[in-house]
TrEMBL record:
The keyword Glycoprotein does not apply. This is Multisubunit sodium/proton antiporter MrpA subunit. It comes from Breoghania corrubedonensis. The keyword tRNA processing does not apply. Residues 774-798 are annotated as: Disordered. InterPro entries: CPA3_Na-H_Antiporter_A, MrpA_C/MbhD, MrpA_C/MbhE, ND/Mrp_TM, Proton_antipo_N. Its main location: membrane. Residues 613-676 form the MrpA C-terminal/MbhD domain.
Length: 798
């Protein structure tokens, strides 16, 4: 379907960008109610993508869009299947609640409009990633998510920690994005396809390609950096410097899942290999354990949730690479459940912070009476995160355990990792949900009270959706989750969705072990926190500190390298330029044997001998000159000799131009020489003179040989014939040279004029600086050295 010839999906993806432009104005007009108005945009986007649920559940796919840069095969197209539709629903649905939440969280903030604008920019970028069909277009949106997240993380740019976190996220995810671009270009090279649907349909082409390994490495770098996999996990917890709406949206439900989305999307063509099924479970499992262990170490609500997000992403990567349809089904279920309960818990953390003034577990307690709705949201979301019935998190945990338990050869190891990680996540979830609300009330920086409706409607909705998705699993399973699992697996997947286990088996026993272990850790969480603190202190160095050391090393290297290539000495720059030019001229001719043949000596007339003698005399005069000024004047002899040659061979206009250029050059250079404080004599040491002589001779031989080689090639008159035939007809000019310069090469001539103008302005500036300097008391007249003048700023003086 289309509106004015534009597909609705294109409009849906671009709608958040339009809302970003309108957000500041809407905040000024509607003030505190702006969030309600602006939330209509993502709500309509959600409804648009929801329309595709029925079709994709029956295996249908859709491609919409238009040709963008057809010459390069870049199309603004979007591919919708079970995977893309569910991700689009998560982005737009949770985005609607985040806009409302941000309206309450940022109420009264002077930059609320700018903040909402950044959120919409990110929303549109993320929609482009998860629905993008063309690989190049998808990459553009991928990088836009990094840029917009940089803006959101560094929103409070006056704080050093915010600026550092934003820069760190940009460097890590942006670097991964460049690797992903290389991977995409190699995929295009191997498959000859640019559309994601065509790539997915290419079968084993990528797996059988000699470029499979480099493609896999580049794709994994892009996915691992975006989804904070070990050892790139450190940027995500640091991103908690952003306002809580950013953490709830980017770093739990959407952006950080972009890497997981990419791995799921490419699983049908890159998966099912030993490399895929080794690397993904290895890095995913390590990330799961590292994330959960660091989570229970924290006492800050947001930091605890951030590390559990890292752990959850590791679990998703591990399941995606497990090589089992059931494991993939568990990954899809867990991804959906995680978006719901983690988004809700982040909003709960923001609510607690907003209404009490602290997020420290040690300073919170007894808030259940003051914040009953927030407490309810926290409990519902924590139960789902802990994998307890009757929530979607319970079903996800059961299915993923079934997937890991039945793997051939690796079931025990992956299951043990999954159980350990889930148990620690249950402990962290219960700490966030119960510690601040139960127990004896504590004195907080702000008197605790329930937050506004804009702030609790989001977490309550997400928590209840986690319950409704499980209770209504008969619809949500085959309609939402089954099509997504089929898209990831590459074949239709018949999921066995159930709220209560159909039979007693390994998944249920593993769930009981998970809950028991998680409750024990929650009971002893203070002791566990102290133990982890001791371990981290003993380790000392970590990836976060390593990032700072890496950046410091890059800065030092850049400084040292700049000192070598940019030492501030014009003589070195000029020597380098002439050496490179001489090498560029001589090396190819020598290497390929394309040098010119030695010409025969022409029969010169007597006046031609006079011109040649004039050239030689000019060269001798330049070399024999004792002062720079005499050398410059003598150099003009060469130009005048060339002008005479032009005149003798029937080009009076070129001869006149050459006479003017040489005259002006000598006059200007002589003027500058007399106005600037330059050494009158050339006091180069003998060794330097020899090196300069060698460079000059090499450059002269190179240019001479090149010109001789060109003139010895048979003349091709096609261009000359074109100008002769079209100068009068097209440009209405009889002087072919003038027509070429003014009409056919008009832009080139304009560029040359601009260069001459800039050069003249630079010379004028030098002269004016020298003129003002000579008037300063204590400075000698023209020709003497300039002394620095320290004058107060006009405002200071006044």
């Amino acid at each position: 379907m289309a509106l004015f010839g534009v597909d609705y999906t294109v409009i849906a993806v671009l709608a958040p960008f339009a809302a970003a432009l309108a957000a500041p104005t809407m905040v000024r007009v509607f003030k505190h109610n702006a969030a309600w108005v602006l939330a209509i945009v993502p709500a309509l986007v959600f409804l648009h993508f929801f329309r595709y649920v029925g079709a994709v559940s029956h295996g249908e796919t859709f491609t919409e869009g238009f040709a963008w840069v057809p010459a390069y095969g870049v199309n603004f197209t979007f591919f919708l299947d079970g995977l893309a539709v569910l991700f689009a629903l998560i982005v737009s649905g949770i985005g609607t609640l985040i806009i409302l939440y941000a309206g309450g969280y940022m109420k009264g903030h002077a930059q609320q409009g700018r903040f909402l604008s950044f959120l919409f920019l990110f929303m549109g970028s993320m929609l482009g990633v998860v629905t993008g069909s063309n690989l190049i277009t998808m990459f553009i949106f991928w990088e836009l998510t990094s840029i917009t997240s940089f803006l959101l993380i560094g929103f409070d740019h006056l704080r050093t920690a915010s600026r550092r976190a934003a820069m760190q996220a940009l460097v890590v995810t942006g670097g991964g994005g460049l690797a992903l671009l290389a991977g995409f270009l190699m995929i295009i090279s191997v498959t000859g396809k640019r559309e994601m649907a065509d790539v997915i349909a290419s079968g084993d082409v990528l797996r059988e390609s000699a470029l499979y390994t480099p493609i896999l490495i580049m794709v994994l770098l892009g996915a691992f950096t975006k989804s904070a996999q070990f050892p790139f996990h450190f940027w995500l917890p640091n991103a908690m410097e952003a306002p809580t709406p950013v953490s709830a949206y980017l770093h739990s439900a959407t952006m950080v899942k972009a890497g997981v989305y990419l791995l799921m999307r490419l699983n049908p063509v890159l998966g099912d290999t030993s490399a895929w099924m080794t690397v993904l479970p290895l890095f995913g499992g390590v990330t799961l354990l590292v994330g959960t262990l660091l989570a229970v170490r924290q006492s800050d609500l947001k930091m605890m949730l951030a590390y559990t997000t890292v752990a959850s992403l590791g679990l998703l990567v591990m399941l995606t690479g497990a090589g089992s349809e059931v494991a993939i089904e568990g990954a899809v279920l867990y991804l959906f459940a995680h978006a719901l309960f983690k988004g809700a818990l982040f909003m709960v953390a923001g609510l607690v912070d907003h209404e009490t003034g602290t997020r420290d577990l040690g300073r919170l307690g007894g808030l259940r009476k003051a914040m009953p709705i927030t407490f309810l949201c926290a409990v519902l979301a924590a139960l789902s995160m802990g994998g307890l019935p009757p929530f979607i998190g319970f079903i996800a945990k059961e299915v993923l355990y079934e997937g890991t338990w039945n793997l051939a050869g690796r079931s025990e190891l992956l299951t043990a990792v999954a159980v350990t990680g889930n148990a620690l996540m249950l402990a962290a979830a219960f700490a966030v949900a119960f510690k601040p609300f139960l127990g004896k009330p504590t004195k907080t920086p702000k008197p605790a009270h329930e937050g506004p409706v804009l702030m609790w409607i989001g977490p309550l909705t997400l928590a209840l959706c986690g319950l409704a998705a499980a209770v209504g699993v008969g619809w949500s399973g085959p309609s939402l989750l089954g099509p997504m699992a089929g898209a990831v697996a590459g074949v239709p997947v018949e999921g066995d969705y159930h709220l209560i286990p159909a039979h007693i088996g390994a998944p249920l026993y593993l769930s009981l072990v998970t809950v028991a272990a998680g409750l024990f850790v929650f009971w002893q969480i203070d002791a566990v926190r102290r133990g982890m603190a001791g371990v981290l202190k003993a380790i000392g160095w970590g990836p976060d500190r390593g990032f700072d050391q890496f950046i410091s090393l890059v800065v030092r290297f850049a400084g040292a390298f700049t000192a070598i290539v940019q030492p501030g000495k014009m003589q070195i720059y000029m020597n380098t330029v002439f050496v490179v030019v001489a090498a560029a001229l001589l090396v190819p001719m020598i290497y390929y044997g394309e040098g010119p043949s030695m010409p025969t000596m022409p029969d010169f007339r007597f006046y031609e001998w006079l011109v040649l003698a004039l050239v030689v005399i000019g060269i001798i005069a330049v070399l024999a000159a004792r002062t720079r000024l005499i050398a410059i004047v003598s150099l003009g002899i060469q130009g005048f000799a060339v002008a005479v040659l032009y005149m003798l061979f029937g080009a009076p206009d070129l001869s006149f131009t050459q006479f003017m250029v040489e005259t002006l050059s000598v006059v200007i250079l002589a003027l500058v020489m007399t106005r600037l404080n330059l050494t009158a004599k050339d006091n180069r040491p003998f060794s330097e003179t020899i090196s300069h002589m060698i460079i000059a001779i090499a450059g002269g031989i190179g240019f001479g040989a090149l010109l001789m080689a060109v003139t010895q090639v048979p003349f091709d008159s096609r261009l000359s014939d074109f100008f002769a035939a079209n100068s009068r007809v097209v440009a209405h000019g009889r002087n072919i040279v003038n027509v070429i310069i003014v009409d056919f090469r008009g832009l080139d001539t304009l560029g040359e004029i601009s260069v001459v103008m800039v050069t003249g302005l630079a010379i004028l500036a030098l002269i004016r600086i020298r003129s003002r300097g000579s008037k300063v008391p204590g400075n000698p007249p023209t020709g003497g050295p300039l002394k620095p003048v320290s004058e107060p700023h006009p405002e200071v003086a006044s």
